[in-house]
Design brief:
Layout lengths: L1 H35 L12 E4 L3 E4 L4 E6 L2 E6 L12 H6 L2 E6 L2 H4 L9 H11 L4 E5 L7 H15 L3 E7 L3 H10 L3 E4 L2 E4 L6 H9 L3 H11 L2 H10 L7 H4 L7 H23 L3 E7 L2 H4 L1 H10 L11 H13 L2 E4 L1 H4 L3 H4 L9 H21 L3
Parallel strand pairs: 5-6, 5-7, 7-10, 10-11
Antiparallel strand pairs: 1-2, 3-4, 8-9
């Protein structure tokens, strides 16, 4: 009996020593990573947003702050409407030859590029080079879906009286954004930062947010981010569960849930089109492709994480749906997918997934080339 007690005591001591050693190794590794291998972090100034009963949230007017991510650091300034644009007097609006109102999410907003590098700014520059005295208003904001963009149009079309509304449709998450906004459009501010409502914050979100303070965790995520084995494990865990909407939208055969989500977004586009037609405003939809559409390696990872075969997917499915919708409703469609897939590394940030400066430059010129003839035929 005494021998058993001694063994138990030694075992307990060994477990404590092992725990102590592992803790020291963990702390030491964390310190070494922080000191010698720092990771540029995503940072945004607090108290930049305000809650809005119609849109959920929007940026405050006249704020200026720096936004950082691992590959870029830029300054954001807003005008009196909270847009990332300059102020326009009513005299400027009334006397310009041509005015375009740009709607969209973080791509349109110009995430991680300077204001003068956004594709809407490039479009404005190209128009003015052709002696088309133009104003292109950037009303995009990160996280907005088609529902919010429709509401932005209804609110600001009477103010700016645009000749064209350009809605920039990001295939990566616009349907998901509409799904979430429809489910719950509640937002709140915590210590000045915008936070989604509790219904949109699950336990995995909370765990990830807390662990993300650790460099060890960040490096592990980097290692696993492109690892097929990790994606396969995710696929097995998610077996028999609905795919994430971002992937589900690429399946060849839509589930009832996915069909409902697409029809919701389509309905918003149709309502917006009817509103713009009633105002004699030309409607243009620009397709912004997501990584699974232009990168075959990412497509394979999507299939693995979905526990499905590549043949089960059509990564141009949404493009085809939008093309069909635009043809039926006499809407101009500009699809940038084929241009962006020529060299994704050149046009996208490596870690973030948004267009970089080159991507914005290309997009601005694509849109210009597609609509310049239409613009020249429009009379103020």
């Amino acid at each position: 009996m005494r021998k058993i007690k001694i063994i138990k005591k030694e075992l307990a001591i060994n477990i404590l020593l092992l725990t102590f050693v592992l803790l020291i190794l963990f702390i030491g590794t964390e310190i070494i990573l922080r000191v010698f291998f720092p990771i540029p972090t995503y940072a945004e100034k607090p108290y930049s947003y305000q809650l809005d009963p119609e849109l959920g949230y929007k940026l405050l007017p006249y704020v200026k702050y720096e936004v950082q991510q691992p590959e870029s650091s830029v300054i954001v300034e807003t005008n009196k409407y909270g847009f990332r644009d300059k102020d326009y007097s009513m005299n400027e609006i009334d006397n310009t030859d041509f005015l375009i109102l740009g709607l969209g999410d973080s791509f349109t907003f110009g995430a991680y590029v300077e204001e003068n590098e956004t594709f809407l700014n490039i479009l404005e520059e190209e128009l003015n080079k052709q002696n088309v005295n133009s104003i292109v208003v950037n009303a995009g904001l990160g996280g907005y879906g088609i529902i919010q963009e429709h509401r932005v149009a209804k609110k600001y079309v009477p103010i700016f009286k645009p000749d064209i509304v350009v809605l920039n449709y990001f295939i990566g998450n616009d349907i998901r954004d509409d799904h979430n906004f429809n489910k719950s459009d509640e937002w709140f501010l915590v210590d000045g930062y915008l936070v989604a409502s509790e219904s949109r914050r699950n336990i995995f979100y909370k765990i990830n947010k807390n662990l993300n303070h650790l460099y060890i965790y960040k490096y592990i995520k980097r290692i696993l981010s492109g690892n097929p084995i990790a994606y396969k494990i995710v696929g097995l865990i998610r077996k028999n569960k609905r795919l994430t909407i971002d992937y589900d939208q690429f399946t060849k055969e839509y589930s009832p849930e996915m069909n409902e989500d697409w029809l919701r977004t389509r309905n918003e586009l149709e309502q917006l089109n009817n509103y713009l037609k009633s105002k004699n405003i030309i409607f243009v939809i620009v397709i912004i492709p997501s990584q699974p559409q232009i990168n075959e390696d990412v497509q394979k990872l999507v299939a693995l994480s979905s526990n499905m075969e590549l043949d089960d997917f059509d990564f141009r499915k949404v493009n085809k749906l939008l093309e069909e919708f635009c043809n039926e409703n006499d809407i101009i469609l500009i699809d940038t997918t084929s241009f962006m897939e020529e060299d994704p590394v050149r046009y996208y940030f490596k870690l973030d997934g948004h267009w970089n400066r080159e991507g914005h430059k290309l997009a601005g010129k694509i849109i210009f080339n597609q609509i310049i003839n239409k613009i020249q035929n429009v009379k103020k």
